[in-house]
Amino acid sequence: MPVEPLLSESEIRDRMAAxxxxxxxxxxxxPLTIVAxxxxxxxxxxxxxxxxRIPLRIALVQASSYRGATTSATTLVINEAFAxxxxxxxxxxxxxxxxxGQTLAALVRHIHDRGARSVRTAVxxxxxxxxxxxxxxxxxxxxxPDAFVVGYGLDYDDDYRHLPYVGILSQ
Length: 171
Ligand code: XMP
Description:
By secondary structure, the protein is α/β, with parallel strands linked by helices. It has 3 helices and 9 strands, in the order βαβαβββαββββ. The longest helix has 18 residues, at 9-26.
């Protein structure tokens, strides 16, 4: 399927550098753990952490939502096999895209419950007009139109993650 470029490699690189500076200033002398949500935020994680010149730890969580067979309610299943203890840590939760906000809001609650000292959120992308859960990301890369996007970690059916830019997938 054709992909129409939306954010170029250099735009993303510049924005990541700016976010890195901001995070570095905000978390100086604090025990920072960046918890990245698999799989979409892996590329953003790799690029962002190399722009942050203060000590930090990284952790990974997986969140999958399942729609009930008989209801439209969705259940979020959180797998934290690769998440070390965050007790007493200042956690920055990193996701690829804020869409309805359900995933991020549930993960924030979950990490608070795990004993983190603070929890903030960072997203590479935020789609306009889609949010149903009121959550304001503390750090946001780009606000984008309501379209299905791929690349720089984001997938369609597990393809396109390796594209170095973000593009709109024409269906
Ligand atoms: P919610 O709705 O909980 O969902 O904010 C966030 C998750 O939905 C996926 N998502 C997308 N994935 N292109 C993608 O590749 C998109 O345009 C898109 N919109 C939502 C993504 O997994 C994200 O973590």
